[in-house]
TrEMBL record:
It catalyses: (6S)-5-formyl-5,6,7,8-tetrahydrofolate + ATP = (6R)-5,10-methenyltetrahydrofolate + ADP + phosphate. GO terms for molecular function: 5-formyltetrahydrofolate cyclo-ligase activity; ATP binding; metal ion binding. PANTHER family: 5-FORMYLTETRAHYDROFOLATE CYCLO-LIGASE, ATPASE INHIBITOR/5-FORMYLTETRAHYDROFOLATE CYCLO-LIGASE. This is 5-formyltetrahydrofolate cyclo-ligase. It is an enzyme of class 6 (ligase). Substrate binds at residues 53, 58. Belongs to the 5-formyltetrahydrofolate cyclo-ligase family. One of its GO terms (biological process) is folic acid-containing compound biosynthetic process. SUPFAM superfamilies: NagB/RpiA/CoA transferase-like. Its cofactor is Mg(2+). ATP binds at residues 7-11, 132-140. Keywords: ATP-binding, Ligase, Magnesium, Metal-binding, Nucleotide-binding. Coiled coil: none annotated. It comes from Ciceribacter naphthalenivorans.
Length: 190
């Protein structure tokens, strides 16, 4: 069995468990994530932070993003271009959101493209060392690599529910470790 096979198995298992959470429980956990992360994530006013809008059974971090904006963050959302490349477009209050593929919505092409300093990263599974399994397409790995090539060192904070934790995530050379994970139980630094 290859590392890709093991990751696929863990991904499917943890997403199935996440899918079993009721909508009410996901809302409760998402609000707890906002409570825990709203003040615990440290940054200076004007810092560019990439969030995301929830798809499927993901945590809804819109309340968290609102808290971060209120503290002076400049927000952006990931937009998948060319089915392989993520760019980050600025999310301004009241801006119209458009369909951006993969069941997501985000700012349109008129929005400024930004390089985030902090990325709130969706994932399917994580472990206690900060290793993560994404959704399998490598979008975030490539986006992070591009930011690093530009001389940036983005802080990576995984966003998940506790039920998505696994004993160990097998890693490959292209995998990037998180600096922290934020769940309904709180913010854990690695």
């Amino acid at each position: 069995m290859t590392i890709k096979d093991i990751k696929a198995g863990l991904r499917n298992e943890r997403l199935a468990v996440r899918d079993l959470l009721s909508a009410e429980r996901r809302i409760e956990f998402s609000l707890a994530i906002a409570d825990h992360g709203g003040d615990a994530i440290t940054f200076d006013p004007g810092t560019v932070i990439s969030g995301f809008l929830p798809i499927r059974s993901e945590a809804d971090i819109r309340p968290l993003m609102a808290r971060l904006r209120a503290r002076g963050a400049r927000l952006c959302l990931p937009i998948v271009q060319d089915r392989a490349t993520i760019i980050f477009r600025e999310l301004l209050p009241g801006a119209e959101l458009i369909d951006t593929g993969f069941g997501t919505r985000g700012p349109g092409p008129e929005a400024a493209v930004l390089d985030p300093e902090i990325l709130l990263v969706p994932l399917s599974a994580f472990d206690s060392r900060g290793d993560r399994i994404g959704y399998g397409a490598g979008h975030y790995d490539r986006a992070i690599a591009r930011l690093v090539q530009k001389g940036r060192e983005p802080r990576l904070i995984g966003i998940a529910f506790d039920c998505q934790e696994v004993a160990e995530v097998p890693t490959e050379p292209h995998d990037v470790r998180l600096q922290a994970i934020l769940t309904e139980s709180g913010l854990r630094q690695f």
